[in-house]
Give the backbone structure.
Amino acid sequence: MFARRLLKALLCVGVLMVASTVAMAADDSATPTATTLAAADGSSPDAFPVYAEKGAATCLKCHDTGAAAGILRTAHAVKGDSRTPFAQHACESCHGASPQHVDSHPAKGEKRASPTVVFKGDRISSAEARNGVCLTCHESGVRMNWKGSQHSNSEVACTDCHSLHAEKDVVRDKRTQPQTCFNCHAEQRADSYQLSHHPIREGKVVCSDCHNPHGSPAPKMLKEVRVTDTCYNCHADKRGPFLWEHQPVREDCTYCHNPHGSINARLLKDKMPWLCSDCHGNNNMGGDATTHSVTAAGGAWANGFYSRVQDRSCTNCHFQIHGSNNPSGSAFLR
Amino acid sequence: MFTRNAQKAALLASVCLVPLSAAMAGDFDDAAPAAAAAGTPVYNNEVEIGLRVQSAGSAVFGRYNGSPYAGVSVLGGWSARNRDDVFYYQTYGRDLDFGRAIAPNSTVGLKVGEQGSWGLSASYDAISYTQSLDYQSLFNSNGTFANGGPGTTYASAAAAYRTLAPGILSAVQKFEVGTRRDTGEVAGDLRFNDWLISTSFSHEHKSGTVGQSIDISTNMAFLAPVDYDTDRYRATLAYNGEKLQGKLTYSLSSFRDNLTSIRLDSPVQTAGVANAANVVLPPSNIAHNLNGQMAYNLTDKTRLNLNMDYGVQIQNAVIQPEDWSQQTQRFYSGDPQTLNGVVQTIFTNASIVTQPMKDVNLRTSYTLDMREGNRAHYHIRQGEMGTSAGWIRDALTQSYIKNTALIEAGYRILPSTKLTLGYVVTDMQRTNAQVGETLENRATAKVRTTAIPGVTTSLGYEHAVRTVSDVDESRPWKGLNNSGDCQTASATQNGTYCLGIASYQAARTQDVVPLRLSTSLGDDATLGLNSKFTANNYPGQTFGVRREYMVSSGPDVSYRVTEGLDAHTFYTFQRSYRSMAMSKGSEVANPQTTIGLNWSEATTIDTSTFGLGATWKPSNEWKFGFDYLFNFGNEGVFVSLPGKGFSGEEWRVDTMNNSVKVFGEYEFVPGASLNLAYNYDRLVTDDPFAWGSPFYGTAGTSGALLTGQGNAAYNVHTVMSRVSYKW
């Protein structure tokens, strides 16, 4: 079954690769610029850009203070690197050629015409136009799957998370990154404040340790292609393969765990024995004669839980629940 | 708006339990934009030293920060960086604890390079985890008895539950349980034209103990020793062309457990049965992975992505001896002495994103994900030591194949409003599983609009139907509902599957409604609302999980009260509800339970999380801050036993955490600051399942000797003072 389906899949991928290679040879149009992107977006009528003659100096005549000038101390402003905006058209590399902004002389009380691409404020450009500027240079590496990603489809802009004009971008600092993500992901923020959590707020684990917010073919924008592989990066002791495998464990750790945090110990989504009952609901939890009874010994239900169900509950006995390499470990008891 | 939120939200990052680093996070970074302002000094370097006084010890309070103890600690850190055109360097050290040779939470790093040409980095990072300061066990971490053991063995006629004698408790000892990771990493990259070669190597040593428990005639807590070494190597070749981008990565992860097993002797012995457990520790293993990605812009509006990942996971540790107790299972003679376990994983994905006309987006993708176990299915025989009796079981490996096809179309129906529709088909096939194949069809719809000026709203709806086929309850992996009457009775009961199907394989309908709203309230405030509702129904399940729903909702407000005074608050309510039905299959005479033929259970988990933070900067020299975090969790179980006339709430537990922090900072000379902070953190919980109070069986009671780490509650005051100097 696997071999046949794999063959089909590889054939499919192969056809696409050949098609793309042919297309590559056939078409080599120029990389879009901020200006042409904006033109396509409809925010600028001029497809033949006219850049300021004095480059950044023109802009700094007005924008020489505060956050705007902070970009001068960032990697984007390094002229020695020919790839950077400041090695090309300076501010206009990203904001687009903006003679309408530079040359305008508004009447008192009126606003100057906007630059071609605007990243914040009332006259902000579309997310597509803003992202198009960044993707001009940053479409490779971890951002290769940006287009079509959940964030892209939700019209999240690069600058919603990244601070381009700050010398240090808060989202790239482990200690402050999660707060940026939590602005939208409130559920995950609340989870991270539960009693059981990964050391996210302690600054030791951050969202981008597991997720690629720039897009991924994996579920939930994970860095690795599947959930288990992501978890094995830190929990290689769970990888196995084991002599005795626990089926759901091999498929998806999130069947049992909520990696962002939980009210239950060990990031479990539910308390044991109920969590285990999701799959082992009958006879076991129903109380076969001794071993799997949930009620207190010798008593009625109302007397409370049997001691074995407390504390680590099912894993009091089945402690090798992620897999066992002991010949006697078929029930993960050894 | 998002950026501003990020800066304000960072206030709440300081409501944390860590030493100086995260507690003071943001100070140095926040200075950067302002520093570039005309006439303001620019700081590249900083050193800090601080004093931390903690009023009480608590494993839960200090589990991640290396500070579970009461007392005084001296911490420090530095940061230095510079850039001279393309050349740059950066070095930093955080949470350096001068009271200990190697602090449990330190981070040290160095980066140097020439932008656009090459870069090198080296770092060291430590992460500690404290599970318990007083884990109670009869055993040392090497498996020997603590305190010389109970001295006597105690026999009982019962096979599985032996009587605990009173004297056994005198041998219990308290241990500190936890682990620590020390990780060193070096990395480098080299760039020429459109090509980038990067590589990294890291070595991690993890040591310590993990609290576990085992059943050897009775339940006993023990300490599983941790002595792991993990090497990770990664090499990437990437290309960044104008239209074509590609990346090929090879990675190796080698996990080595320096210990193989420990032996635990039961203090409860029965004549003729060797009651000892051979606890096999996680086996050493190795994983190779080859990952390829390619993207090509077919036109300005069409992009093709191909992703491929091939992995091999190998485990060939020597098979440890079988157990020495009634749990004994052995290989058939002739089976190998090492596992020779190999798993192959394959992932391929192809997607095309295009904008065929103005205001229309299309995306289609196909994904194959498979895992294939390639080792033999070994035959295992069960029987008491020295006997040949027993049933036979196959030690299987799991294989699955998952196909996912997606098509999505977005159309901007108004300049301000975009509608996106999608359809996803997922087919999952598993070997040896109760359900051989599941097929899920999912339809999605989302509207995102800014039709109301200043308000961005996103509302979605998803409906998914998962069906099952190829159900066979005689397969090896059948949810382990493998004892009782269903196996001998008819295959179905009440027209459905008798045993109940594992929830993640069962037929299911799912409805999801996400809502997101954000708006500006004037020039100085923003309001956000994030909500999500998910409902799962399992229509085919007479037994097993039958219904679930999850709710998450709450507002988020940022407000600039006055110039220099910013406030941020949020609240999130979450509810998780799940109900299931169970069956014993038939009534039994059971002295330990009154559970009848059929019964049902429902769990409701409610949590509320509230945060409030503010910073006030009345002048360039002074800065004050306040943070408060509240988290309350409530979990209840409702049980219904129609056959026994019992229906009601079986138990309810609460967990509540309050954390308050105030801090002030004064820059007494340019670049030199004094920071004083106070943090009060309190946790109360009555949850015996979460953290487990020690439990001992009493004489004459057949049962368990569960120990553990005790109640998680804590009440901790922390005062931190820091002096920093920037230049």
